[in-house]
Amino acid sequence: MEKAVTIAGGGLAGLACGIRLRERGWAVTLHERGHYPLRKVCGEFLSPAGWARVQALGVEAFLERPPLPLASARFYGGPELFADFRLDPPAWGLSRAALDQALARRFQALGGDLREGSEAPLGHAGLVLATGRPSDGGPGAWMGWKGYLAAHDAPPELDQADLLMLPLPQGYAGLSRIEDGRVSLCLVARTPVRVPELFASHPLLQRVFPRLAHYASIAGFSFIVRPGDGRIGDARRVFPPVVGDGMSQALRGGEALAARLDGGRGAGDWEAALRFQLALGLHHLMLWPRGRAAAVRLCRARPGLAGRLYHWSRG
Known about the structure:
Elements: E1 4-8, H1 12-23, E2 27-32, E3 45-46, H2 48-56, E4 68-76, E5 82-93, H3 96-109, E6 113-116, E7 128-129, E8 142-149, E9 163-168, E10 171-177, E11 183-190, H4 195-199, H5 203-208, E12 213-221, H6 241-244, H7 246-261, H8 269-287, H9 289-301, H10 303-314
Parallel strand pairs: 1-2, 1-7, 2-6, 4-9
Antiparallel strand pairs: 3-5, 4-5, 8-11, 8-12, 9-10, 10-11
């Protein structure tokens, strides 16, 4: 008898799970309540491990453009204090919308049943939840905001480093180029906050704000882990973005659940748990001005330190 599963949520985790199960001969019905391209708040930074996952899933051929290599980073401890380091091997700039659509096309090419604009029956036995950040715990303390700059509006600092991480009041922002040449800017901050005040807090952000096109925003979420073997992606664990490498982790979680459903062991959850704790610690460090400045000075004094952290957390 053919094995069958229903997945609620057509983002990275749900599609990765669906692709692996289709490769194993399962009948997979995937419900996505939105329509592609999905608008998500996402840093669009893909680690070397994340890009390797994309390739292993057979998705590369479905991308309209290849990702853009990101070979260097600059972390700011204040308006004028920063540390530069190499990303070796390079990371990749790839828009979330492009990756979502490529995964969806790969899933359909394998014979998966993808239903856009559809809500999954939540009472379904064995339902896989990949529905994003749940709201069952009440409103959280964090908000995310995403926008794009046209390629010709890129700040000159992006000619000096491919990834910029900037401090904000009770938050931080990341800027990098993506596959079509645009600059992706994503920020996270503790609520309540006004977005114009965040951009006024750093001179680089002040310069780009008038030319920045808002793309998506979300509020009221928490960085948290929720129990349940049937949860993947943000429904399972919402990673702080500073080191969380959320796109790669979402793909990993989807593949691991597919392996377990098919009778295998899958990847152990301990690695994701350790990375989550590391990301949470560095997230809080980024929010503490003195600690952030001290960390940047330490990276300037010991140039290899940031590179080693990059290798462990995202390499």
